[in-house]
Structures are given as structure tokens and as C-alpha cells.
Amino acid sequence: MRLPSLKSQIVLILITLAVISQPAWADKRDWLLTYPYWTESKGEFEVEEWHNAGDSIKETPEERIEFEYGISNRLSSSIYVVRQAGSLQNLGWQFENRYRLAEPGTFFVDPAIYLEYRNNSPVGQPGELEGKLILQKYVGNLALATNLVFEKTLGGDNTSVRFDRFHVATAYPLTPTSLDGGVEFTRYLGAQVTSVTPGLYGSLTEDIRYLIGWEIPVAGNASSRIRTGFSLEF
Question: Which of 72, 109, 150, 197, by CA, is between 20 and 30 Å from 57?
Fold first, then answer.
């Protein structure tokens, strides 16, 4: 049996999101590159799959399987298994933590911090630390967010902390149900690439969410790529 083309699959996914989507939940993630302010609630467990998840549009595309747990209502931790997209080659693993600095509405913008350790030993590379400052703001139903991303290599020649990239994102409900549309702007400072990523983000049920976007370079030398995410909450 002949499988549908990638474009046909994408169209089918978008139609399914629009038709089946249920009422929205504020703490569900929009965006494929930009982290939101929200964290898992205490005791919640979520499994996520991210395709073409590399942190640079010039890197080899990656697939990441994430296991996330809400330690408290403001702190969540995740373990990622990282492999090369389209193969079973193990590239490493990541340990991620996100902490909301205050409850929503305490400040003019809602702040959170992020700290990640990445182990690259399966490919013979040194480990890395990554930190993010996450800021989010709602203007009516319009969500606005930015991430400032810093990295440090744990070994090798360049071990200084570097400002690696930043993200600016917006999202807005497209229907009274849970289908949101948005766009992300990303500047990769090391790769000297700027990209724009329009996307759709929807909840099929209260516990199942799907995200799809097309990252398009608008400056610098890189190829575009489709990015997807899928999450299942328990």
C-alpha cells in the first residue's frame, strides 16, 4: 500500500486538529523552539516526542523522547533521550529543569528559568550546560514570549559562557476550541542564521497535544525544516 506524501500527512494533521480539538488548557505548550513560562503541575507526568529538534537549524536534525515530571507546582524536571533523526543512532541524553519564579500575574511579565545538562559521550563530545531566561506575557488572548539562551561547553577549547541564541514568539487562539496559531523568530548567533517558524498547536484531548511548524531561514545559510512535537500527559 502506498503511503501518503509528507505534504498530504501535514494537511491531514492540520484538518484533524481543527475538527477534533477540545477546549484549551492554559498550561499546555505552544511553540516548537520557544519555551513557555508554564511548567507541569505537581505530580503530573508527561511523555513527549520532538522531531527535528536540533538547537540550531544548521545541525543534523535530532529526535528527542522526553519524560517530564512536576516536582512542585512551579518546578518540573525532564530526562531526554536524543538520537539522530531518521536513524537509531544514540547521540546522548539531557537533564532539564524549569522553575517559575512567581505565580502568574505577579510581575509585569511572567518569568521562569531553565537549566539543562547534555551528555554527548555516545558521540565522543564534551558535555554542555544550557541556561534560559524565559519571559511570557498575555495581552488579552495573545501570548507573547521570549527566551534568552546561554551555553557552556564542559571541556574542549571554548569553555566560556556564550550567548547562543534568542527566541521571540507569539500565539493566538484561532478557534473557540484549542487550536492556536503562532509564529517564532529565532536568531542563532553562532551559526549567523535568522529563522521564522509559523506553526499550529492543538489539543486533541485534555491529555494529548500536537504541534507542527515550518522553520524557514530568512538570513544566513541553512535549509528549512518541518518541526513537530507530540505530548501525552498522565
Answer: 109
